[in-house]
Amino acid sequence: MSASPTRLAPAVVGLRRDPSPALAAATVLLQIAYPLVHGEARNTLTVVTVVVFFLASTSHALVHRGARWTGLYVLVTAGLGLLAEAVGTATGVPFGAYDYADSLGPELLAVPVVIPLAWAMFAYPCLLVGQRLARSSRGATAIGGLALASWDLFLDPQMVEAGHWRFSDVGVSLPGAPGIPVSNYLGWLLVGLLMMGLLQLLGRGSPQDRLPDDRVPAALFLWTWGSSVLAAAAFFGRPLVALTGGLVMGLVAVPYALALRRGSRGRG
Question: What are the residue boundaries of the structural domains of the chain, listed by start?
Answer without folding.
Answer: 19-267
